[in-house]
Amino acid sequence: MKKIITTDKAPAPIGPYNQAVLSGNTLYTSGQIAIDAETGELVLDSIKIETTKVMENMKAVLEAAEMTFENVVKSSIFISDMKNFKEINEVYAQYFNEETAPARETVEVANLPKYVNVEISMIAVK
Q1: Backbone angles phi, psi at 106, to 5 degrees
Q2: Domain containing residue 109: CATH number
Q3: What are phi and psi of 59, to 5 degrees?
Q4: pTM, two decimal places
């Protein structure tokens, strides 16, 4: 059985999907990009600011499922330019305890929705 997780503290989906789906004790999030939930505007001032907005959006989705970043077991990071890896990683690292950080992959892709620079999805377990 699955439960749809939604919050107005993260941007609404821009297609036929949900912010997250809880199946049993496992949460599968959709990818988050740097959209401000209140204004609907992209936050692209710098790669660090963009990544922070992505992580804050993800935090809101996790909280809607009564979870935190400590519950995350897997992250997928999609970036448009591997040259941004270091700065993205610096921001990402602020949200996790290095000793209990999740498994992760970071993949450079040709394009992302709305031509953003970074998109992150996660799997979390209660």
Answers
A1: -125, 125
A2: 3.30.1330.40
A3: -60, -40
A4: 0.97
For 64, the token pair is: 């809607």
Domain count, the chain: 1
Q: Provide the residue-wise pLDDT of the chain in tens; the chain has 126 residues.
A: 899 999 999 999 989 999 999 999 999 999 999 999 999 999 999 999 999 999 999 999 999 999 999 999 999 999 999 999 999 999 999 999 999 999 999 999 999 999 999 999 999 999
Tell me whether residue 125 is in a domain.
Answer: no
* Residue 46 domain flag: yes
* Angle, helices 85-93/47-64, rounded to nearest 10 degrees: 40
Domain with 36, as residue range(s), is: 2-120
